[in-house]
Write the C-alpha cells for this entry.
Amino acid sequence: METLATILVVEDDRSMLDGIKDLLQLVDLGYGIEVLTAENGRFGLTAMSSVTPDLIVSDIMMPEMDGYEFLDNVRQNPAWIHIPVIFLSAKGSKQDIYRGKISGADLYITKPFSSAEFLELVKTQLDRTFHLRETRQQVMNNLKKDILQILNHEFRTPLTYVTAYYEMLADSMNRVGDSDNFYEYLRGIQVGCVRLTKLVEDFIQVIDIRMGELKTKFVANAQPVHNLDELVQLAIAANQDLINEYKIQIEFVALDEPLAVYGYAPGLQEVFSRLLNNALKFTYRRKKQHGQIRIVADHVDGTVRISFQDEGIGFPMHIRDRIFELFFQFNRGLFEQQGPGIGLTIAKAWVDLHGGIIDVISEEKKGSTFTVVLPAWIAGQKPAGLATDQRNSQAVTILVVEDDLHLLIGLEELLQIYNGKYQFNVLTAENGRVGLQILAQQRPDLIISDIMMPEIGGYEFLSQVRQNPDWVQIPFLFLTAKGERRDVHLGWRSGVDAYITKPYDSDELLALIVSQLDRHFRIQNIAAQNFEELKRSILDLITPDFRLPLSSVAEYSEKLAVDLHEVETDAQLKESLHGIQNGSVRLTRLVEDLIALAELKTGEAEMAFALRAQLVTNIGAFLYDAAQHHRLKAEACGVSMRFTLASNLPATFSDTSLLLTGLQRLVEMSIDYCKAQPQSQITLESACVGDEVHLSLCLPMRLPQNDEAAFLVVGTGGDGNKLSLSPGIDLIRGIVELHHGRILIHEQAQQTRFTIALPIHASALSL
C-alpha cells in the first residue's frame, strides 16, 4: 500500500509555487503526494494548524513573515520539531548558506535548481522522515510492551501463589486426615502476600516521590546520621535470606573513622538495601552461586562514599543514566529478571533528597560498582548538596571518524577547548570499521565523519549507522574535502544531516554542531516527556485499594497457621478459609482490572480490538451471560434478576470478550448496590434505540450523592484520562470508549438505569 505524504510549499512567487507543486505531483517519488501551498510564512503556519505536513519546502524572502521567522515558529512547536524543512532560495552567498544551515533547516538549495536533484533530495528527506517516525513509534511500542510485561509478571506471579495455594489448602481441608501439607500451603500464601505487598508498597512509594510526599517526610525527619556502618549492616541483614539462598559472600569494609551525614536514617538504609539486593540478583545471574559482593565505606574530600561492587552481568555504559528510570530493565527477557524496575528509581530519589549522587561504573560480563556519594555533615554548618557540574554545561559525546591523524587531533582539540553550552567528550576512530566498533560499546550524541577512508568509508559507515534502530536518530555530519556540486548532492542524497567541506571555518563548524545538538536534544526530551506521561498514567492505576485484601489474606492465613492445632469447630476453620478466599477474590479482581486498564492506557487494547472485533448480531445475549456469571453472588446477596431482552437486534461491531468483561463488571457493581436492600430485583433489558443498541440495567434505588457511579457520569463527559474512584468503573468506561459507545445513567423516583449504548454497524443501518 502506497504511503501518503503531505508536503507544504511556502513561496510568494505564484508561478514558482505552481511549478513546484506540479513537479511534486507529476513525478513518482514512491509516495502518494498531497501538496499544500502558502504565500508566506504566516499563511504557512495557518495551513499547519489544520494539517501537519511530513515535509516543508520554503522560500526565504517573503512578505509579512519570511522563511527564517517561519522556521523559528515551526521549531518552537513540539508537535512540529520533527518536520524536515528545505530552504529553496535565490540567496546563494556563502554567508546566506551558512545562516540557513545554523537556523535549523535540514537542506539549503539555491535557485535556479535542477528539478531531478531537487526531487531526489525531497525523496531522501521523506524516506528519512518516515524511517525516523517508524523507529520512534517502535521504540514507544516496545516500551509499552515492556511495561505491560512487567505488570503482568510482577502482579500475576505472586497472585498465583495466593490463589493456587488457597485452592490446595481448601481441597485438603475437605479430606479427612490430609493435614500434612497445611503449613506448606499457608507458607505459599504468605510468600505471595509478602511479594505482592512489597510490590504495591514500592509503587505507592514511587507515587509519593512524584507527588513530593517523600520530600515532605525527609524534611520533617532529617537530622545528623552518625551510624552509617550500622545502616549498612541492617541492609545486609534485610537481604540475608537471599544471601543464603544464592550462597554469595559479602565483604564489608567499614569507615576507618566515624563520620556523619545529614539525612533520614530509614531512607539511607533503604538505599543500601536496594543496591545490595540489586547486586545480589545480578551476581547470581552470572555466577549462579559462590559469587562475592564487596561493600566499602570511605571518605574523600568532604564526602562519604559507600560502594557496592558486584560480580554481576554488568551493562554497557551508554545506558548508565537509564538504569534509574522507572520500569527500565537491561535485557529483562534475556536474563529473566524479577522485579518491576523500581528499586533503583527509589534509591536514586532518596539519594537526591540527601544532596548526594549515585556514581556507576560497569562492564558487561564483569560486574558493576554503584557508589553512593553523600556530603559529610559538620556540626554548625548548613547541609549542602554535591555540585554535579560546576560549569552548568551539558555533557555531550561526539564521535569523530577521520583517517588523517593530524586533522583528527586538530578536530578533537577544537571540540575539547570549546567553552559554551555543551561540554564535549570526544571519541575518535581512524575509519568506519573502528567507528562501528565504538558505537557497539558507547552511544554518542553526534557523529562527524570523513568520506574517503580505508576499509569502511564514510558512505558505507553512514549506511550502517542508519540501518541500526539504536543509532538511526544520531545526527551525522560529513566533514570532507570532496566539495564539488555532485559530491555535495551525493552526500545529501545519502541522508546525512549536514555536509561541510574542508578547509572549514572553526566557528561555523561549532555553530552547526550546536544547532544540530539543540534540535536532537529537543526531540529526545519530547519523546521522554511522552513516555513519562505514559508512566504517570500507569502509576495512577496502582491504588492503596490493594492493601485491604492483601492484609485480609495475610491476617486469616496467619491466624489459621497459629490456631491450626487449636481449632475445635468447622466454623472456625470456615471463618479463616472464607477470609482467605474473599481477600484472594478481591486481589484477583484488582489485578485483572489493573492489567486491563494498563492495556487501555498503552493502546494495546486498541490494537487488540482492531484484530478481534467483528460483527455481532446477538448482542443482548451477552447481557444475559454477564448476569449468569454472577448468579450465585446475586442469590447470596438476596438479589433477583429479571430479563427483557429484544430479539433480532441490529449488528454491532464488538470485541465480544472485552464487551463481556465490561458487562460483568457492571452487573457485579449493580448487585453490590442492591444487596443493601433485601429482596431487590435488577431488570436487564436490551433494545434498539435510533442508531444505537442499548444494554440496560435497572436498579430499584437512587444512587447516593457523590457516589462512585456519579463520578462515572463526570468521567464520560469530561477528561477521558481522569480516573474515577473505582478501577472497575474506569475499565467499563474504557471498554465502552473502544466500542465508540456511550454510558448513560438516568435516575428518577427510586430507580437508577445504567445503559451502555453501542452504535449500530453501518452495514446494518443500510438495510
Remarks:
- The longest helix spans residues 115-173.
